């Protein structure tokens, strides 16, 4: 689908260095807020461990918890639907709306529906969808996907948002004051909330024990949509379960602290049963999750609670921009989820990392993200999705480095390493040299020095 | 105690002074050091590119060269971590397992095995530490800024023993420099931007030298410093610890 790979898209992003600096700085500031609040939270590391363990339990017993959840949802009067993939999910949403002759819907943040391309699907069928999360609303106006799962338009300057609002909402030209822009959006969205008969939300946590689900937002937009709707739909990935309500505290303490450095999201809304005359639907979506669950090396990626902490800490993300991942879920977590969905399309993403490991350290559910990136690389090469050029160079390198004779001889004539180490693999247009000087080859290698001096010491 | 000295391929070719300093430093502490001449590489460049399955011969050669020693020491955290995590062999897995446990990066070998308490070194300069990610998050040479855990730093502990040396404080104490193996060419733009930002942090805070236990990071930072005609220099930590007036 995409024509450009991460490296090219990130290079494009870097053409405006001032923007990169500001993007990097904003996200680093959030990482620092996260560090500060993590250090103020008693037993932070134990909390992460507990959350990870609870999620291990969920993944190992997913079948049973899902059935328990379904049964309790039904007891509460919520209609349950199962969707194997994006297409089935979208059809279910459409059929619910069609039955009620609803042509307009308001939606709070849901990465799952972004992944399913629900908005486009419904628009093609004459249904108007408005994203009510401010960042997502801005991205929708600009016809661009979110660049960050928690901060969807973090790559945009306030002046650019002012331009968009001028064009679509009729605000004064040149207006870039965040408060005034937010006020304009709120006014517009208020009318949307009041007039929409259907509201769709994502789900942060589903509680198997009680058949309720929890939606966390800072703007209260999920609540505004849901409380004013006659049809309320929730789209939920099957991995978003927790066993019991008592486990929720562990996750709520971690989620917002990891995401933005707040103690908790402004709203943690529990939805349990429909109001009189209201209909509630919950769609449980697989879309590749049960396949990922079967991959021993990668199943822990399903523990993700979508805090975005790995994006904020990732230097490649901060300096390359979220849209360079050409995937709904961006950043390090996106790079380990995407190859399961379409390995060919996303073969570049596990390589868009230095494997520095910072992501795994901030992850509130302790996913070994950087180790999974390494493992995906091995899979991608085995399945034949590495480019030929890379493949040939690596094979020559492997042969030479496993044959000391060849290595030492070539080492003398012009420094073999100079020719074949990764930073000079492509000799014709050497990307190393574009903005960096080559290391200067000394008069003699350590081998040569050692041969002359070993008996002196 | 006999130590097998592992000098990674690019250090051998480009940074012989770091290798010599490592050898001399170990000899000063009184250990017998042997440099097996047939060594080549740890196999990391292949493995990190997704070609771990091609590293079997490289691994067997490594085992052949280094099995005989009490310890193996290398002046490169990255290569050491690769051996620790990925050295396997179908022919000789028992030796592979033993080697994974007895290979040490130079700094941790000095602090944890030799338990060095003083050094006769002098380096009267302002120095910034670049924590390589493999040294930091892989080998835990220092505490990682993401974790809520007590502070410690093995390289800092050693550098504090060096007369005249002044350590500078960075704005971002342990951000990745963007080298990342093949990443440095396949993701050139981001790699360079990351490197530039690291270099600027050191310059802004007054470093004359940037030191590290990984020359791969330093080679990348040096490339950027040179290109921008900066007076700031890179130096491997072994060279500082081995330096005299």
Spell out the helices and strands of chain B N to C: EHHEHHEHHEHEHHEHHEHEH
CATH architectural designation of the largest domain in chain A = 3-Layer(aba) Sandwich
Radius of gyration of chain A from CA coordinates = 25 Å
Quickly name the level 1 CATH class of the largest domain in chain A. Answer: Alpha Beta
CATH class of the largest domain in chain B: Alpha Beta
CATH homologous superfamily placement of the largest domain in chain A:
NagB/RpiA/CoA transferase-like
Approximate shape of chain A: globular
Q: How many angstroms does the end-to-end distance of chain B come to?
A: 29 Å
Largest interface: A-B, 83 and 75 residues
CATH fold annotation of the largest domain in chain B = Rossmann fold
The total tally of domains of chain A equals: 3
Spatial gap, N to C terminus of chain A: 63 Å
Care to describe what's here?
The complex is a heterodimer of chains A (457) and B (245). By secondary structure, chain A is an alpha/beta fold. Chain A folds into three domains: 1-40 and 306-386, no CATH class; 53-287, NagB/RpiA/CoA transferase-like (Rossmann fold, 3-Layer(aba) Sandwich), CATH 3.40.50; 392-453, no CATH class. Chain A contains 23 helices and ten strands. Chain A has a six-stranded parallel beta sheet with strand order 1-10-7-4-2-3. Chain A has a four-stranded mixed beta sheet with strand order 8-5-6-9. In chain A, strand 5 (205-207) and strand 6 (212-217) form a beta hairpin. In chain A, helix 2 (17-40) runs antiparallel to helix 12 and helix 9 (158-169) packs across helix 10 (178-195). The longest helix of chain A has 24 residues, at 17-40. With 245 residues, chain B is an alpha/beta fold. Chain B folds into two domains: 2-113, no CATH class; 126-241, Rossmann fold, CATH 3.40.50. Chain B is built from 13 helices and eight strands. In chain B, helix 12 (215-227) links the parallel strand 7 and strand 8. The longest helix of chain B has 17 residues, at 188-204. Chain B is globular. At the A-B interface, helix 1, helix 2, helix 15, helix 17 and helix 18 of A face helix 1, helix 2, helix 3, helix 4 and helix 8 of B.
